[in-house]
Write a structure and sequence with these properties.
The complex is a heterodimer of chains A (about 625) and B (about 70). By secondary structure, chain A is of the alpha+beta class. Chain A is built from 21 helices and 23 strands. The two termini of chain A are about 70 Å apart. Chain B is an alpha+beta fold and about 70 residues long. A four-stranded antiparallel β-sheet of chain B has the order 2-3-1-4, with helices on one face. Chain B is globular and about 30 Å long. In chain B, about 40% of the residues are buried. Classes of the chains: A alpha+beta (about 625), B alpha+beta (about 70).
């Protein structure tokens, strides 16, 4: 029989016993000793475990133990002749304990269910075409796996055919995701289409789903200030209340010269509310619920302290490329003395082997650049110079042109300009742009309206930065920063702000993410660097996820403080009323158990992540902005 | 090194805090953290005491919360 079941039966039996005795003794005049024995018998049924634990703890030298204090309070009531009160207090105390255990178990289970994204099984395809089920942990890199409709992908891999995935468990986004052959598939996603095959690229322990679970499960290792405050408070609260009870029982009777029973009675009420459990339990429960609920909507939080810091953040610093903008570059225009296509083709020839996003944009714009590239030199921060069978082609910024003594006309307007020169002569310039994410402006407005300062850091020139700020409503920008400058600039900002949140894509700004009070990485799906260095990971790639994270933080902190204030206020009220003799132990135990139950129920609300309040705005055309 | 324990039947958050505090005070323990909701205790300690730690943790838990069960992870 489970412990909870046993306790409920004991509560039921003693409640019936209690009611029977009360009724019987109301009609039958029994001597005091008979009443005492009858009530004590019921008392033992309900209190024997508490008695035992109190005895064990006393043997261990712990006197301020809640079991012991409850025994003192109830036995004290018996001693001054209040049998009914003594028994009732113990009964309610046990009801409270039972409920608390039940609630903790339930919230542990529901948070467990919330995080039930672990794949049960992996189905590998053997050489003979047969499939075999194995545990996800045993999948090896390179194996071909098969997922049937409705099953979870076990490890990260690459799709071997087109398919449809439900990524809700990872990003909170419930729209089906069409994945193409050759595209990366992430563990934890559910296959919504027909049977899908993919090749394992990572072991289970390195896969997205294992990382997410690990992160959320270990999240409350980092405790919030509110939680530490409560633990500290709890350490002092109990001894202080017990000492106050002792003083209340002894000093007034000595001064007045009598009235012992009354004052002892008042003091016993103190002992009843001396356990800080309601407070101590509701705070970690709230944070854990908040973190669990957030993980459901694609926001991974590494600790309660980060929810607290995000809630307090008064300054939001954003990286530009990949955070405010899509980080996808495209050729916008080409200015050329002769043929624009020819200039693009030459540039593409030179840039063909480069992985730089700008180079990729050029190559994409001119896919069939004819000719052979013999040798390429990449000049970091400037561009490339390539020997081709069309001649020597230089493609890069103004600094590259200066270095080669090529006279390139200064370009007006904004954007990244790639100058192209052939055999030492300027032939044209290509302007490349990045575009804002569709919801950037809305999200920035919401943050500005909440009274927070928004700042953008970028490596680009001031022209581009100013234009992005105008389009998005970001208050302030710092342009032309090298990656190393960003940390320094952030530190300057941190000196004049209370709490600074930094939002980046986690790809090349790990040091900045780590330095900020709260580092928030966007589009964290499958990005190890982001998951490692950020405090909060937004699985979604757009800024509305930041608003969701803020809403979660706000709700959690509100509930935490509601519980703290409410529990403290009720306890304080009970203490004052008991000291004045206005209330009695009945009310004290009701208040105490009641507060605990309400605080726990309130804490469990944290598990439902709120949606940020957003005004519906007309769908904006994606604005092209320069990069 | 970091050692982890699963503490089952841990129902009292205040006792959990006490356990964490006592483990953190053990000689050679650099940091102890008890995740009440996950019922998991992680202890960062010197290698020299790692072998002894299990018994110490079990003793502390038994003292603070006699109903709880400790499992070494």
């Amino acid at each position: 029989m489970s412990a909870n079941r046993k306790l409920s039966i004991r509560i039921g039996v003693s409640a019936v016993g209690f009611a029977t005795l009360w009724t019987v003794f109301a009609f039958v005049q029994a001597p005091q000793w008979a009443q005492l024995i009858a009530y004590l018998a019921v008392y033992l049924v309900i209190a024997y475990d508490t008695l035992w634990r109190a005895a064990v703890n006393i043997a261990h030298g712990q006197i301020f133990d809640e079991n012991f204090l409850m025994i003192v309070a109830t036995v004290g009531a018996f001693a001054i002749g209040d049998y009914r009160e003594g028994l009732a207090v113990m009964l309610f105390y046990q009801v409270g304990e039972l409920f608390q255990k039940y609630a903790v178990g339930k919230s542990r289970r529901s948070i467990g269910a919330l995080m039930d994204i672990r794949p049960d099984v992996a189905r590998i395809v053997c050489d003979d075409g047969q499939t075999a089920e194995i545990e996800p942990e045993r999948v090896e890199i390179g194996q071909t796996l098969l997922v049937r409709a409705g099953e979870r992908i076990a490890v990260d891999g690459v799709a071997l055919q087109d398919g449809t995935l439900d990524m809700a468990a990872l990003t909170g986004e419930s729209r089906p995701y069409a994945c193409k052959q050759g595209e990366r598939v992430l563990s934890g996603a559910i296959n919504m289409g027909g049977t899908l095959t993919f090749r394992a690229e990572k072991q289970y322990s390195d896969s997205t789903v294992a990382k997410i679970l690990d992160l959320v499960e270990n999240a409350s290792d980092k405790k919030a200030k509110a939680e530490n405050f409560i633990s500290k408070f709890a350490r002092w609260y109990t001894p202080a209340v017990v000492l106050a009870a002792l003083a209340l029982a002894v000093i007034p009777p000595l001064v007045q010269g009598g009235g012992w029973t009354d004052w002892v009675h008042r003091a016993l009420s103190f002992l009843v509310v001396s356990c800080p459990c309601a407070l101590v339990i509701s705070v970690p429960m709230s944070f854990f619920g908040g973190i669990g609920g957030a993980s459901r909507v694609g926001v991974l939080v590494k600790g309660g302290n980060y929810l607290e810091l995000l809630h307090r953040a008064d300054t939001f610093v954003f990286d530009k490329t990949g955070t405010l903008t899509q980080g996808k570059f495209a050729v916008e225009s080409v200015s050329a003395s002769e043929s624009a296509e020819q200039v693009l083709a030459w540039a593409a020839l030179a840039e063909r082997q480069s992985n730089h996003p700008i180079a990729r944009a050029i190559v994409q714009a001119a896919p069939d650049a004819g000719g052979e590239t013999r040798s390429v030199r990449e000049i970091a921060g400037k561009g490339v110079v390539a020997e081709t069978d069309c001649g020597e082609i230089a493609a890069g910024n103004a600094a590259l042109m200066r270095e080669y003594g090529i006279d390139a006309p200064a370009s007006d307007g904004v954007g990244t300009i790639v100058y192209v020169a052939k055999d030492g002569a300027y032939v044209g310039a290509i302007r490349i742009n990045d575009s804002l994410k569709p919801d950037t402006a809305d999200a920035i407005r919401a943050i500005n309206e909440a009274g927070c300062k928004t700042i953008m850091l970028t490596g680009d020139g001031a022209d581009v930065a100013r234009q992005v700020c105008e389009q998005t409503g970001v208050c302030e920008y710092h342009a032309q920063l090298l990656p190393a400058d960003k940390v320094e600039r952030l530190e300057t900002i941190m000196r004049s702000a209370k709490t600074v949140a930094y939002v980046g894509d986690g790809i090349n700004d790990a040091p900045v993410l780590m330095r900020a009070d709260v580092g928030i990485a966007m589009g964290g799906v499958g990005s190890d660097a982001a998951i490692e260095s950020a405090d909060i990971v937004l699985m979604h790639d757009d800024l509305s996820a930041l608003l969701t994270a803020r809403a979660v933080a706000r709700k959690t902190m509100r509930i935490v403080w509601q519980n703290i204030v409410f529990a403290l206020a009720v306890k304080a009220a009970v203490l004052v009323l008991s000291a004045l003799g206005v209330t009695n132990m009945w009310l004290a135990v009701f208040a105490d158990v009641g507060v605990a139950i309400l605080a726990i129920v309130n804490a469990m609300r944290c598990m439902r992540a709120p949606r940020p309040s957003r005004r519906r705005s007309a769908k904006r055309a994606t604005t092209r902005i320069a990069d | 090194m970091i050692k982890q324990y699963k503490i089952e039947n841990l129902d009292c958050a205040h006792c959990a805090n006490k356990i964490q505090q006592k483990v953190a005070r053990l000689d050679g323990v650099r940091q102890a953290n008890l995740n009440f909701m996950m019922q998991k205790l992680s202890v960062e300690c010197d290698d020299a005491i790692a072998a002894r730690l299990d018994d110490d943790v079990i003793a502390i838990v038994r003292k603070s919360e006699p109903d709880a069960k400790v499992r070494v992870l």
